[in-house]
# Entry
Amino acid sequence: METIEVPMLEIKSLNAWYGSSHILQGVDLSVSQGELVCLIGRNGAGKTTTVKSIAGLIPKVTGSVKFNGKEVLGTPAHARYSMGLAYVPEERRIVPGLTVRENIRLGLLASPLRKKESEVIDEIAETFPRLKERLDQNAITMSGGEQQMLAIARAAASQPKMILLDEPSEGIMPVLVDEMFEYFTSLKKAGVTILLIEQNVSLALKIADRAYILDQGEVVYSGTAAEMLDDVAIQERYCAV
Ligand SMILES: Nc1ncnc2c1ncn2[C@@H]1O[C@H](COP(=O)(O)OP(=O)(O)OP(=O)(O)O)[C@@H](O)[C@H]1O
# Structure
């Protein structure tokens, strides 16, 4: 019998409002298991609103958001997180007053699989040597780039099925951005599905399988990363900041 693959994430006719401002106007988007899909578009196009809606953080939304085949619209954000849907927001979300190690422990607490702390710390130390050196430092005293790495490491420690990343490279030194993008590739290899918002379009398209372009709250283009990389006209039209 033929098996029909259910996408990891399937969004249909997603509409979202802030008060009376109608921001998302019927977004359709899907991400298959193990894919890395990039969401691009100008400032104000609705990218953050889209991932916040997926994470369950926008109160006024209609349409359908299915995660692993299950409708989650109306499900609280924490329940979506427990289902394996992690979100790393644009504004860093490390917990001030806690050390790097304690922040990572929070991610572990959310993990349904509960890996050993030492195992997770070893993995993080190997990937992000900067965090290894700072395990017992108050996380708030780290640089912006280091805090962003910690937010990503903490999300990964929860062993999610899917991670939503909102402009992770924003304001980060190029050398750290390269490290971070290598890490996304290794997460993908480990089977984690990723939806990535990224302003650095050419960098993102190099690691992505597919991409969507949003403009004024609508999907105006979708295609493989390779097709979009070749299409300079479409990049100039919709991705200029
Ligand atoms: N809390 C809010 N209240 C009212 N309007 C908002 C709010 N947050 C965002 N908006 C508006 O919604 C629109 C889409 O914003 P959104 O942050 O989703 O865009 P974006 O594509 O992520 O842009 P950027 O690249 O600048 O982050 C913008 O016009 C923005 O001004």
About this structure: The beta strands are 9-18, 21-31, 36-40, 60-67, 70-71, 85-88, 162-166, 193-197, 210-215, 218-224. Residues 18, 21, 23, 41, 43-49 surround adenosine-5'-triphosphate (CB under 6 Å).
